[in-house]
Design goal:
The chain is built from nine helices and 14 strands. The longest helix is centred in the C-terminal third of the chain and has 22 residues. The two termini are 32 Å apart. Bound molecules: 3-hydroxy-5-(hydroxymethyl)-2-methylisonicotinaldehyde (PXL).
């Protein structure tokens, strides 16, 4: 734990030139929240995979030497946070990073897909190995598609009942993590929910947001990085979920008003100052 100065997060994600996802979202969000991001890029892409056509450089041989360098320098991290991975060997490198920093908060965003489909570069082998990271994590933040993949279940096509959602959260936490947050959960009311479970006190939480009929890239990265920023600053789980949902919903609605393409991601630049200020948050409820 760093006793003075900003908290420090090792962020093991890709960097994509176009499309506002992964590190191009995580760095500005966490910086705005007063947290230092140390990027450990897994790949460099000209544009994220949703563009269909992109140039990609896999950085599988970078992660381990970078880790060794940080250990040699005695660098301390308050949090190790993994996301989009370019190869299944990177699972081993992330496992090494997590075990090398046992005191850090271990966050795994099991990035694999969205809207019932896996991303173009995600092989079945990479998806099945993601469970190994989930097992060592303190916090995981899958969307509903990723939650279903992790549990080996089909993607639910109709809104789930409260009992089914609670069961999904509890079964994911049985894989290892203390905190599970699932995003993009449709509800019968037509709203979209983020739902969370904290095994330590057996509490279940829900935050609703308005449905917007476009799924922008990077939404999960935005939600997860704000959630983690809040938890690193001492938020309770529902307050951290509330902040992540409120900001993401506001930024999505701003983006929607411009009628940009979904691949452009969420227009976060004009909204960032909201994250630096004080926010009144009381929109959560127990699930
Ligand atoms: O936001 C998830 C994500 C991260 N990184 C890359 C992606 C995606 C989703 O499409 O393509 C490169």
């Amino acid at each position: 734990m760093n006793m003075t100065g900003p908290k420090k997060v090792a962020a093991i994600h890709d960097i994509s030139g176009l499309g506002r996802c992964s590190l191009t979202v995580i760095i500005p969000v966490l910086s705005a929240m007063g947290i230092q991001v140390c990027p450990v890029p897994t790949a460099v892409l000209s544009a994220h995979t949703g563009y269909g056509e992109f140039v990609m450089r896999d950085l599988t041989d970078y992660i381990e030497p970078a880790y060794e360098h940080y250990k040699k320098m005695g660098t301390r991290f308050d949090c190790v946070y993994s996301g989009f991975l370019a190869s299944s060997s990177q699972i081993d490198h992330c496992l090494k990073f997590f075990s090398g920093y046992p005191d850090a908060l271990k966050v795994v965003d099991p990035v694999m897909g969205d809207n019932g489909k896996s991303y173009a570069t995600y092989t079945p082998q990479l998806c099945s190995r993601m469970a190994e990271l989930v097992r060592v994590a303190d916090i995981i933040t899958p969307n509903l598609t990723e939650a279903a993949i992790l549990l080996g279940e089909p993607f639910p096509t109709a809104p789930l009942s409260t009992g089914e959602i609670k069961s999904m959260l509890a079964r994911l936490s049985e894989l290892g993590p203390q905190i599970v947050v699932i995003t993009s959960v449709p509800t019968v009311s037509g709203k979209i929910a983020a739902v969370g479970f904290d095994k330590q006190n057996s509490s279940y939480w829900k935050i609703l947001s308005e449905y917007v009929p476009i799924s922008y890239s990077g939404s999960g990265d935005m939600f997860a990085s704000i959630l983690i920023g809040g938890i690193l600053r001492g938020d309770s789980l529902p307050i951290a979920m509330n902040r992540a949902t409120s900001f993401t919903e506001m930024a999505i609605k701003t983006t929607y008003s411009y009628k940009t393409h979904w691949t452009d991601g969420i227009m976060l630049e004009p909204q960032l100052p909201w994250l630096t200020g004080y926010q009144e948050l009381s929109d959560y409820s127990a699930l």
